[in-house]
Write a structure and sequence with these properties.
heterodimer; A: alpha/beta; D-Maltodextrin-Binding Protein, domain 2; 14% strand; B: MetI-like fold; 73% helix; globular
């Protein structure tokens, strides 16, 4: 046998093994999938989770789920790009390394179109009594919904909020801004480089960090990436003006902000260098933790400002949890999803999906900012970052474009014209 | 005895290269629902030529390779000459200098990113306050590539030093003793004796570092994400993005083949130089033997 024949033989054997494994994949969860005690003895669920606060909570809850049902849950905590790359490779290779995956809201369209995860809609309808869908905010269903399919169950809803340093605002005689013009004016007034004090902190780093922060501010200024027909309108006059506004905020941000990602942005705010920061609600409780914050007790939180005269709408994001379509443990995976959505917030994830949680008097007494989170969820816009299959490409192109404007190498019109030319062909 | 080597070469080297070459002629995106492959000939290569990002990445890669390898060679040779003498202090110093090599490049990139942060980084703060680098080295298009080169040099200069030091220690002592007797100074001895005799080792060190520098990814991923703009986007980072973010395997394969050709060209040049050095060495040895 020559070497090439041996390689072919080896590949054929691997293909047969793969086929045999694929044949063993079970169908979608059966009606008997209730999480009765020890029903899943010997089952191991592998879960890919992005490294937000909820991931540590999932890890903490895993032994409790095992005690209740017998199924072991192994939580693999990954960085954002790593999770996307690993689970996508798992899906397209049909290797079923993960049974459960946390799904960013912006992946919904791509996952639904490609059928990577199980459509949970029939299961949600079947187990409606256990789930109490009416208690879940409407906007939460965007965490996994796409064209009639529900490819992930809502798990960690994030509201975009404005956090501000109360002490500095009181000293300057300011009230938290409600409009974007006020935000800019306050940032300017609070900035004093001689004291290493800056009005606001924002992500400027090339890539997802800069792109996503621009999308947030663009939404608050009334801009849209897609038109009413779902076609890209990247270089609209409104978006060009909004990108210029976004860049102007950096005059009142720490000098290094043009290279900030989420971690650096948070550090600047928690260290007291920057006095305002917009961010997801999940980070809010961390400001009161003295081990990571120098501004304990000084942070006020309100809904994020919007452009004058605009109808209130607030950025909404977060994570759902889905079941790999190739998983052999879909019954146990669905049982886990149902189980955590009951145990969730009280375990300290900082993530919300239910109205009853945000209106809970005990929790409100402890976290008064929950009022603003509730308000943001009621008027939440989960589509300000389009949940479409082309999103990752749009984000990449915009990540470079925004960064070039912040560095002054190109104008907003130049980069958005170029971005439109790159993005338009991605749409049929 | 040849069969295992042939199987190994086919499995590890030959098959992936042929496969990569083959799929570069297809439109093949893993995240397409149908996952179909359509033959498009050289379109992926034409796309790379017309793609401003890919063109910039090629230029940036060359800038990085030349800058980083030159800096690492200059510093590595200087350190090797300083540590040439076999003293206890030199041995301790050489061991300590090797520590950066033991770090994962991704980790060193993350640590350097934190240190260079202009607002609260341990180095960045001083650069901001004493040298006026208010935005930080990685945040400015004029200095970002320099920052990447510095980090790479910090990590890999010790390797160059180690290779050159091994070469220096293997040199015969007689020519240096003769030079000393003839009254040659230290600088003249290094310039006219040590460096020419070290030439094959220098070529080896340059070859290793050049091939490795072409593959730069981790530091860019951790420190700059290829920015500001496209300033530090190198070809391997672009390959990662096209292949493992967009799963556009055909285009990623085309880009990686371009990278392979670039490495191949440099390798051929170095190997040619090394062959010439070897032949020159043999000729000199033959002349000496006849004398």
């Amino acid at each position: 046998m020559n070497p090439s024949s041996r390689v072919t033989g080896l590949l054929a054997t691997l293909a047969l093994i793969t086929t045999a494994c694929a044949a063993g994949v079970s169908p979608s969860p059966s009606a008997s999938a209730s999480a009765s005690a020890q029903r899943f003895d010997g089952v191991t669920l592998n879960l890919a989770a992005e490294s937000d606060q909820y991931a540590a909570v999932l890890k903490k809850l895993a032994p409790e789920f095992q005690a209740a049902t017998g199924a072991q849950v192994v939580v693999d905590i990954l960085g954002y790009p790593e999770e996307y790359s690993k689970i996508t490779a798992d899906f397209v290779g049909h290797t079923a390394n993960y049974d459960l995956v946390t799904v960013d809201i912006v992946w919904s369209g791509e996952f639904a179109m490609n059928g990577y995860t199980v459509d949970l809609k029939p299961l949600i309808q079947r187990d409606a009594g256990e789930i109490d869908s009416s208690d879940i905010y409407d906007v939460m269903w965007k965490l996994g919904e796409w064209q009639g399919k529900q490819v992930a169950f809502p798990m960690a809803g994030y509201a975009n909020l404005l956090n501000y340093n109360k002490k500095a605002f009181d000293s300057a005689g300011l009230k938290p801004p409600t409009t974007m013009d006020e935000l800019l004016a306050d940032a300017k007034k609070l900035t004093d480089p001689s004291k290493n004090q800056y009005g606001i902190t924002i992500n400027g780093q090339k890539g997802p960090a800069g792109a996503q922060d621009f999308f947030v501010y663009n939404n608050q200024l009334g801009g849209h990436l897609l038109d009413a027909n779902g076609k890209p309108t990247i270089n609209s006059d409104a978006n060009i003006a909004n990108l210029n506004f976004f860049a102007s905020l950096f005059k009142y941000a720490p000098p290094g902000a043009v290279d900030y990602d989420w971690g650096a942005r948070e550090t600047a705010f928690k260290n007291g260098i920057a006095l305002m920061q917009e961010g997801w609600s999940v980070a809010r409780s961390g400001y009161e933790d003295p081990s990571q914050s120098k501004i304990v007790g000084q942070v006020g939180t309100v809904v994020a400002p919007i452009a004058s005269g605009m109808a209130p709408t607030h950025g909404f994001g977060g994570w759902g949890i889905g079941i790999n379509k190739d998983s052999k443990n879909q019954d146990a995976a669905w049982a886990f999803i149902k189980w955590i959505q009951k145990e969730w917030v009280l375990a300290g994830s900082g993530s919300y999906i239910r109205k009853s949680t945000l209106s809970d008097p005990d929790l409100l007494a402890k976290f008064p900012f929950q009022t603003f989170i509730a308000d943001s969820f009621e008027k939440g816009d989960g589509d300000f970052r389009p949940r479409i299959p082309q999103y990752s490409k749009i984000q990449d192109i915009m990540g470079t474009a925004v960064n070039e404007v912040l560095h002054g190498t190109k104008t907003a019109k130049e980069v958005l014209d170029a971005a439109q030319a790159q993005i338009a062909p991605l749409f049929p | 005895m040849v069969a295992p080597i042939a199987v190994y070469a086919i499995a590890i080297s030959f098959y992936p290269i042929i496969y990569s070459l083959a799929i570069s002629f297809f439109r093949y995106r893993l995240t397409d629902p149908s996952q179909t492959r359509s033959f498009i000939g050289l379109d992926n290569y034409v796309r790379a030529i017309n793609d401003e990002g890919a063109r910039t990445a090629v230029i940036n890669t060359l800038v990085f390779v030349v800058g980083a390898v030159a800096l690492e060679f200059a510093l590595g040779l200087g350190l090797a000459l300083l540590l040439w003498r076999d003293t206890r202090l030199n041995k301790i110093a050489a061991a300590l200098l090797l520590i950066p090599i033991s770090l994962t490049p991704l980790v060193s990139g993350l640590v350097w990113r934190a240190m260079l942060n202009a607002d609260f980084g341990s180095i960045g703060w001083y650069l901001a306050n004493f040298l006026g680098q208010r935005e930080g080295l990685t945040a400015q298009s004029t200095t970002a590539m320099l920052a990447v080169i510095i980090v790479d040099a910090w990590q890999w200069t010790p390797l160059v030093m180690l290779v050159l030091l091994a070469g220096l220690k293997s040199l015969p002592v007689e020519p240096f003793e003769a030079a000393q007797v003839d009254g040659a100074g230290r600088w003249a001895t290094v310039r006219h004796l040590a460096v020419p005799m070290l030439a094959p080792t220098i070529v080896l060190a340059l070859l290793i570092r050049t091939m490795d520098a072409f593959k730069l990814f981790d530091v860019v991923f951790a420190m700059t994400q290829g920015g500001p703009g496209l300033t530090t986007t190198v070809l391997n980072f672009d390959v990662y993005k096209q292949g493992l973010v967009f799963f556009d395997m055909g285009y990623a394969a085309a880009l990686s083949n371009i990278l392979l050709v670039m490495i191949g060209i440099f390798a051929v040049i170095y190997i040619g130089v090394a062959g010439r050095q070897r032949r020159e060495g043999l000729r000199v040895a033959a002349v000496r033997a006849r004398a």
